[in-house]
Amino acid sequence: MKSTDKRNASSYCNYNDTFISYDQNRQPNGLEEILHIFEESPLPVEEQVVMEGGFGTGAYIDQIRHHTKDIYGVEGSEQGYEETQQKVGDATNVHLEIGNILGLSFSDDFFDAYMVNQVLHHLDTKPSYPNLTLFLKESKRVIKPGGVLTINTSSQEQLNPNSGVYWNYKYIEEAAVAMQARYAPIPELVSTLGELGFTDIKTTTPSGKLFQEQYYHDPRLALDADFQKADSIFCFCTEKHIDEANSLIRSDIDDGSVHQHMEQTAKQAEKIGEAVIVSARKPL
Ligand SMILES: C[S@@+](CC[C@H](N)C(=O)[O-])C[C@H]1O[C@@H](n2cnc3c(N)ncnc32)[C@H](O)[C@@H]1O
Predict the structure, then answer these.
(1) Domain count across the chain
(2) Is the CB of residue 22 below 6 angstroms from any atom belonging to ligand 1?
C-alpha cells in the first residue's frame, strides 16, 4: 500500500506522507514541562495511566512511557501508528490504536492524565471550532476526577508570519494566515475549558524548540522538500507558492537579509516561546 492510501485524520493534511521525514525535522517541544504538570497530581507519575491523542510518530510516547505506569495512544494516521509501534518495540506498558480522538473507545474516568501535542489545529475547518468543543468534552469524559489535560498548541502571536517565531512563515504568508485561522486563540481555549467545567486552568510556555537545530541557523533547510513535508503549513501551499517562496528565500540568502530576519525571530522566540501548554483539571 502507498503511504498516501493509508488512513488519515487531519482536516487538511495527509500525515501518511508527512511522517516519512517528520522525526528528522522535529523535536518533542514541551516534554519536560508536560511531565512536570503530571507530577503536580497527588498520584506519583510512575503510578499514572496516561493517554496521548494524535501521537504522530510517537516522539512523546517513546519518552514518557519510561516515567508512567501505562501509556495509551490514539492516532488517526496509519503511517504514524506503524512508526510508533516500531519505536516502542515490545514495551508492555504502551497501548496504541488507530482511531479518532473525537470519539474514544475508553470508559469514563479512565486516565490520570491526557495530553495532545500540536493536534488541535487539525480538528476544525469552521471558525467556531465545534470539534474543539467535542474534543474537550470527550477528554473530560475519559479523565479521572482530579486528572489533568495538557494541550500543547501555538498562540496567534507565535504563528504571526511577520512578527512570530517561525522565521520561514514570512515567505509563505498566505499559508501562515490560513493556518493561524485553524488555531483557536489561547484566550478562547481557556474560556471554553472554563465553560465546560475544567478547573485549575494554567498556561505554561515551554522553553524548547519545535524544529531540528539546523532550522535555526541554516536558512537553506527551509528549501528542502523533506523539511517542508514535516510542517503541515505546506499543505496550504500550491507548488507555485512553494517555488515563489523558495526564490525569495534564495534571494534573501544572497543579500544576507534572511539572517537579520532569523535573528529577530529568535529574539521573539526567546520572549514568547515557540508553543503554549494549556493545562486544566477535571474537578474531584
Ligand atoms: C502536528 S501532528 C503532531 C504529532 C505528535 N503529537 C507530535 O507532536 O509529534 C498532528 C497529529 O494529529 C493527528 N490527528 C489529527 N486529527 C486527529 C483526530 N481527529 N484523531 C486522531 N488523530 C488526529 C494527525 O494524524 C497527526 O499525527
Answers:
(1) 1
(2) no
